[in-house]
Amino acid sequence: MTRVKICGITNREDALAACQAGAHALGFVLAESSRRVSPDQAREIITGLPPLVATVGVFVDAPPREVAELRAYCGLDWVQLHGSESETETASLGPRVIKALGVGAGREPDPAAYPGCALLLDAYDSSQAGGTGQSFDWSIAQDIARQRPIILAGGLTPKNVGAAIAQVQPFAVDVSSGVEIEKGKKDHELIASFLARAAA
Questions:
Q1: How confident is the model at residue 192, as a pLDDT?
Q2: What is the mean pLDDT of residues 83-105?
Q3: What is the pLDDT of residues 117-151, one digit of tens each?
Q4: 118-123 and 78-81 as β-strands: parallel, antiparallel, unpaired?
Q5: What was the pLDDT predicted at 153?
Q6: Other CB atoms within 10 Å distance of the CB of residue 140
Q7: Mind telling me the catalytic residues?
Q8: pTM of the prediction?
Q9: CATH numeric code, 3-199
Q10: % helix / strand / coil in the chain, to the nearest 5?
Q11: Which residues of 165-198 are buried (b: 16+ CB within 10 A; e: fewer)?
């Protein structure tokens, strides 16, 4: 069964709707973004979640010490890093670290990179660290997924997630803009549809 993370959660209603639909993880953007939440907002939402839903904080080139402090303050189960963090920096954060890697023409990640992390593959955009709503050549992800568990992101929607899972066979998929009414606001019906098609 492919696990599903709903990212870019900004409010309690969307968080609970995602949990009700069966999401395995929720992502909270703590970096500069139109979907950014404050540490206090993230902590408040996380405190009210039902049990056994993993929480993920998204960072971009934040100092490791800051990431560790916010992980503890917000009650995050995982941290997801979208910047140019080195393997040494990611290792300093201990277990449960997701390293996002941009994929595009001429940018094919090394399957052995960041051995202590979970890998999230997203569409590369030189102007944006993530959440672009763009997809990439899934055959690249397919090759890496044969060698280690990956999280597939980038342009996923209820319409294409089934095909993406069938082709790539990722351990998990990650969606943000593909289930939104507008940036930072989720469509609860799209969330439910995405979860249903990911499980089909």
A1: 98
A2: 94
A3: 999 999 877 655 555 667 888 999 999 999 999 99
A4: unpaired
A5: 97
A6: 16
A7: 7, 122
A8: 0.94
A9: 3.20.20.70
A10: 35, 25, 45
A11: beebebbbbbbbbbbbeeebebbbebbbbbbebb
